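Running this now, will post back.
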Amino acid sequence: MKVFTISTAIALMASLAAAAPAATQPEARQVLITIAFIGAADGVFYQTELADGSSFGVYNPLSISHIQVLGGATCTFTGIDGSVTTVTGDSTVDVGRPQTQIQGTCG
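Update: finished.
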């Protein structure tokens, strides 16, 4: 009788485990960051982008002197004259020779 009870219990646990729903992965959280492009004479414009590693365009002709990232991501920007500016975390970085920015990536 003991063998029958143990065999039945094992079979019952196996069938319950097989019937249990599979664990689902939570959806990846999309992180938005805000970027401040700062030019001369207090000219500034803002752009909000996903921090997912994808490339995005910057479509404002303002010549940029500084870039500030709000949101803690690391972002890299390319200027029209070939500058490459990397901003890490919540900080502001000088572009170098001021120039229009044309592309960025944040992750």
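The first helix runs from residue 2 to 19. More later if anyone needs it.
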